[in-house]
């Protein structure tokens, strides 16, 4: 009877499904020991991260994570995805439940200062409203008194409040904890508008609206957001690996290297391409990876352009334009750093 | 001198004719009419659910008009029941569900109760978990992030009750103990946890728990959720068991003390068996509560039957059949919980008969 | 020497207790130490100073005035206000419905008893969250959009956006007025007996005096708090109705779901209480010529109350706790607000702790209140 209490702290913590063990010094060692990278996934945004009919995860954010898996293991399937809600994703990253958070996360000062590090933006985006055409609304100023569906755990709650104050619109918000609930509420007519990233809106409209032509999307603010994969504070090597795995995708596009021609490019005389593909060694070693990590990434996933078209562009139901997500050489914002 | 005296049979209760019960006086007539009106008011629901319903549809578009779209339920049943578990491995959760059913059926008759049944449950639970995880004998490993649907619901209910029970016994004993520290700590735990909503505990488990543990100890999401449910179950079970402990006559303890039986032996062999036997009917009530509570894990993003249903209903090809999904999920829960409550009633009657004999 | 120490039962038990306490303390210390280390390593901000920062996020409906430019603390108050509001509404309505259900189950009328029985069985065996989602799905799919709103009564509109009713707008310190009115009523009520004794007046006279005094007090309050009333009718403006009293679909779904679910449990508690009153009491009532209704209200219910109140307290507490399920239907009670605050601040620990603390406070106050009431009932009926 005296032993009464102790059960809890001890057994709840230790006894149940305890995985892991002693903390290895670096995330890279932990990941290598585990044999796979664990990434956060949304609970289903087609084009960015959602399981297909077979339960295989697809999308731009998902492939950003797979690129890291390829860089480390040379296997795009050595990545695992944990669906997390808006509130859970940042604590999950901080506490080591996931290694990378590539989940449509806007780079903000408060988040950056508060325990997570951002790598390279993998998508530039406006926050937008999606509104039924029948309401005859085409811009923010017309939205006086509208009911707006918002998902909690996103930056959009603040955006709605700001717009409402700025234009004196008196917007009414309806807040849900899941993206499914917000979509359902828009389509049922509970809300006049749904606010989130314009690309996610396009995804929703293309795949979930009964009749996609019944809805229009317009930007909510004139300011662009940078959706950026994040890692934990305090592990610079891991941040570098995630960063350069993504850099490899845009650099490959700039060099004109595709999944199809990557083997030919190994014979390229261009010294930058040689360094990039690891024909001339040194880059991978510096990161603690295989020297051919960039080659492996392109070989298995293609370059950023191919990834974009496959998930969001012409090869997808979303049919999005590259816009700001084109390379800087084509007027976009994607700008690879030097691989040397 | 004895006079054999046959007592007169009690007068047979006179049952007035039906029409008199229904319309005998103004009050009953009014009640009848109100009840009938309420039943008529439910007619549109019946219409929606049965007569206007679409039972079969070649294409989802057929469901646009008409009532309930049961064709959707038929098409998505597999997903709602097993979630995102890899499709060609779904025989495994099916087997697990079957095993739970068999084990429950075996455990129903009181004459099977005993240490061997407990051992059987332990073995079966280990086997079920192993089967879900895989990773041996050529079974593909499936991590808990991919578990979903009915097996998750059942396993969470089962494991939280099973793991919570030993703690509940300790807490109940602690609360009745005369030792001040054990008593205070037990009361503190019980009252604090009972004062909190389960949603709050689930928040603690899913968001806060990782920060409370040393770096590198990661318990996956399902495990953390289970920890919260276990704590919750333990506390509610403890209060039920405490009731049983109070019902053990003081003389039993005194007799044991007089015989010089050590305290722990007395509790283990004399007090607990009697106490637990007394509280089995109310324990089934706690079981119902826990089965229903597993549905809350949806809030922290665990893919149980309800979340799977919601996810299935958001398929754009179907005309948002949310009501149908909730009816289906509700029916499954109802079947489980009502089953348990029928069993409890039967058990209670048995116990009463036994006591009267 | 040592073995005699070991044999000393009291000593052994004390040693056990001290060991237990030490282990408990060590566990707490271990958890706290882990947390502090984790927070430091991951450079996560700690402390409650965020409460005074501007919240910047909207709350869709609140009985406490709230605007995105208010502080996080104010957002908390709005959440707590909504939790208390929904709990109070549900407790009152569910108790009334529960009384009907409980007595219905014991009715000699077969239709009524059957209906009540089916209702209780169905509601008790389906999880609350499923019911809430069902009601919400029903409300947001079955009702028309605002521009084609149903008008069941003149001035009342029912649509997807909720139920709009004619209302009054109140200026001035409405809260203060209500508080004063309640306080006044209690004061005069308590004073009545004393006045009766002291001045040797008859009861009707005292009642008249009290009423007059109370009316005067109300007028004073009215003027003092600067109350002004304006009628407010809902009208369609742009997207939505404006003005009037609005019950949102979230609030309505939550209320319907919680009331129906809770009333099934309360019904069973009441039935249990009535059943527990010995049959002889009914027969005695009939024997002295009371009607069934009189027996029920004057003999059975007062006795049943004593049995009913403890489980009823537990049920009320569960109702307050169950209100956190509102996250599923989007009503901004405390749980939903805390979720949002966690996102905006990234400070999970402080916010979850605050949530737990608020609920512990509410739970403790409700149980204290009900214990006090229980003690009174027990005394009176002795």
Major protein interface: B-C, 52 and 58 residues
Low-pLDDT regions of chain B: none
CATH superfamily of the domain at 66-84 and 148-356 in chain B: MetI-like
- The strand count of chain A comes to 12
Give the class of chain A from helix and strand content and strand pairing.
Answer: alpha/beta
What is the quaternary state of this protein?
heterotrimer
What is the CATH class designation of the largest domain in chain A? Alpha Beta
Q: Any idea what the shape of chain A is?
A: globular
Write a brief caption for the model:
The complex is a heterotrimer of chains A (340), B (357) and C (382). Chain A has 340 residues and is α/β, with parallel strands linked by helices.
How would you explain this protein's 3D organization?
The complex is a heterotrimer of chains A (340), B (357) and C (382). Chain A has 2 domains: 24-122 and 229-330, D-Maltodextrin-Binding Protein, domain 2 (3-Layer(aba) Sandwich); 125-225, Periplasmic binding protein-like II (D-Maltodextrin-Binding Protein, domain 2). Helix content of chain A is 38%, strand content 18%. Chain A has helices at residues 7-15, 27-34, 60-73, 86-94, 109-113, 156-166, 179-188, 198-208, 236-255, 262-265, 271-277, 283-287, 293-301, 304-311; strands spanning 18-20, 37-41, 50-51, 57-58, 79-83, 116-118, 123-132, 147-151, 172-176, 193-197, 215-227, 230-232. Chain A has a 5-stranded mixed sheet, sandwiched between helices. By secondary structure, chain B is mostly helical. Helix content of chain B is 69%, strand content 1%. Chain B has helices spanning 18-23, 26-41, 43-51, 70-82, 91-107, 115-133, 150-176, 180-194, 198-212, 221-247, 250-258, 263-293, 305-313, 322-356, and one strand spanning 217-219. Chain B starts with 17 loop residues before the first helix and ends with a helix. The model of chain B has no long low-confidence stretch (mean pLDDT 83). Chain C is an alpha+beta fold and 382 residues long. Among the domains of chain C are: 2-40; 72-136 and 249-380, MetI-like (MetI-like fold, Orthogonal Bundle). Chain C contains 12 helices and 8 strands. A 4-stranded antiparallel sheet of chain C has the order 1-2-3-8. In chain C, strand 2 and strand 3 form a beta hairpin. The mean pLDDT of chain C is 82. Chains in contact: A-B, A-C, B-C. Chains B and C meet through helix 2, helix 8, helix 9, helix 12 and helix 14 of B and helix 2, helix 4, helix 5, helix 10 and helix 11 of C. Strand 1 (18-20) of chain A pairs antiparallel with strand 1 of chain B.
